[in-house]
Amino acid sequence: MIDVKEYNNKVVSTWCPGCGNFGIHMALKKAFSELDIAPKDAFITFDIGCNGNGADKINVNAFKGLHGRSVPLAVGVKLANRKLTVIADIGDGGTLHEGIDHLIHAIRSNYDITILIHNNQNFALTTGQATATTQEKKKMYGLPDGRPEREINIAEMALSFNSTFVARAYSGDIVQLTEILKKAIKHKGCSIVEVMQYCPTYNKEASPKWFQEHIEKLEKPFKTKEEAIKASDMKESIITGILFEDPDLPTYYDQLENRKDIKTELIDEVKSFNIDNLLEKFK
Ligand code: SF4
Ligand code: MG
Predict the structure, then answer these.
(1) In which element (H, E) is residue 117 found?
(2) What residues does each domain of the chain span?
(3) For the purposes of burial, counting CB atoms within 10 Å of the CB of 42, is it exposed (0-12), middle (13-18) or buried (19 or more)?
(4) Angle 25-30-33 (CA atoms, 0-180°, nearest 5)?
(5) Block mean pLDDT (10 aa), the chain, length 283
(6) 14-280 belongs to which CATH class?
(7) Which atom, in ligand 1's list, is nearest to the CA of 16?
(8) Alpha-carbon distance 129 to 138, whole Å?
(9) How much is the CA Rg of the chain, to the nearest whole Å?
(10) What is the residue with the minimal CA distance to atom 3 of ligand 1?
(11) Pocket test for ligand 1, best of 15, 22, 24, 141 (most atoms within 8 A of CB)
C-alpha cells in the first residue's frame, strides 16, 4: 500500500473551514493509496468551482479546464492511455448546466472513467447561486423569494440513462466514500459517484447533524435499476452506498473494431512528422 502522504502537496488550501471538499480529497487519497495507484498513474481532470480549486491540492497528474468540461477532458485522457486511472472531478453546477450533455454521452458510451460529482447544491465559488440540484422554493442569493423550478436528482437521472455504476455518498463519511471510490475506480465502465457535500458557507441547512439524521446506509446494491431509482428520491432519507452496478456492458474502447487485438495505447502511436515543407508554402 502506498503511503497516503505521497498524494499530498504543499499548496495551501483556500477552502472554507469545515468544507466537505477536505473529506472528499482525503477519501480520494485513501482510495488511491489502498488500491496501490501511484501518483504518476492517476489523472484527475477538474473544472471551475470550489471543487476545481482542488486541482493543485493533490499530488497526481491534473488538468483544470473550463466550467462543466471535466468529463470530455477525462474521456480524452483515458482513450489516449488506458493504463491511467482517470477521474473527472466536477461540481453539481458544472455537471448539470454546461456539462449535462457530456454527462449523458459519457454514460451512454460507457467510457472507462469515474465521474466524481461534488453536490453542494449551489454555485459556491460565485457566492451561492442556485444550481439544478437546489431544492424547489429554497431561498438563494439572487432568489430571495425562493427557487421557482423543480430540482434534478443526479443519481436518479444517471440511472434513468442506464448508467452501469451509480453511487451516492456523503463528504463527512470518509470511510464509506473511500470504499465507494475504490469500487468505482475498479468498475470497468463509466462510474458515477455523487457526493452530498457539506458547504457551511452557502448551504448551512444541510449540516452534518442534518445529514446524520437523514442518511441511511445501503449494505449492497439494488438488483434492478427500477429499485435503485425508487430509493434515490431523497424525499424522506438519503440512501448512501452503491445503488446499482452492471459489470457486463462493454466499455466504449472495447467496442471499437479497429482497436481489436492492438496492444499499444494511442499515446504510444503518436508519430513525429517534419512539416517544414508544408510551412514553406505559407511563407
Ligand atoms: Fe467549500 Fe462552500 Fe466554502 Fe466553497 S463556499 S470552499 S464549497 S464551504
Ligand atoms: Mg456546487
Answers:
(1) strand 114-119
(2) 14-280
(3) buried
(4) 125
(5) 95 95 98 98 98 96 98 98 98 97 98 98 96 96 94 97 98 98 98 98 96 97 96 94 97 97 95 90 90
(6) alpha beta
(7) 3
(8) 11
(9) 20
(10) 16
(11) 15
